[in-house]
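Ticket #4471: structure output looks truncated?

Reporter: J.K.
Steps to reproduce: submitted the chain below (255 residues) through the standard prediction queue, then opened the result file.
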Amino acid sequence: MKIFRKIRFQLLGHNKTRMYILYAVGEIVLVVIGILIALQIDNWNQTRKDNNALKEYLVKIKSHTLEDVQHLEEITKGRAQIAEACKKARISILDKTEEENLFVFMASGYAFADYYFKPNTGGYEALKNSEYFGKINNTPLDSLLAEYHSLIEVIAENEKSYNDYMVNQEGYLSTQFDVSLILAFGVLPQDSLNIRATPQSEYYEAFKQYTASAPYRNVISLAAFQFDTMIDQYNQLGAIGQTVVNEINAMITDD
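Returned output as attached by the reporter:
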């Protein structure tokens, strides 16, 4: 700047070399300080941008986790209702009271529904593949997310094991029984069935034979105890998911 050059010339003109050197050093120090301040401001701006970007990922993970928790509540309720019917059917088998509990066995047929918990992992996978994933390394959230997604894999394996077995047994049943009456009874309204030529007794007889088969009973017996394990895992995952949400809320609030 002109003012600094003017001062330097004045010092040199008056042969004040020592003062000139001190002034030059001071000028260099000022320039360095200016550069450091500029770098610090740039770092602050970059940190703010990074934190905002991370926050967007965390908000998305929070939203997806809340969706998962709601889905877990729904599937838990469904599994619990089916498990209750299957347990009653299992007791009826042991007590040899199947005929008088035919409706229990009919209700147990929902054990053949291939339920799957389908988590939304999009937000978490997006963060993992981003440059911001390292910002949560060795944090409580990092551990929670690892635990959450590890349990998701365990649940998926258990569900697949059960559903694969169920589908296999159902496939065998379809080759041994004409299920047209069973499907009609399960799908058509009672008023519609009443006007058909087939008497209700034939529908019941078809169910009686179908539910007395070994593959059918194998499935409901498996569901009677394996669903309890699944429900327990759903509950564990829901609790971890809620903790993930709470941790994200705390991090967002701190920012």
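Triage note (M.O.): checked the attachment and the full token line is present. The chain is about 80% helix and 0% strand.
Status: closed, working as intended.
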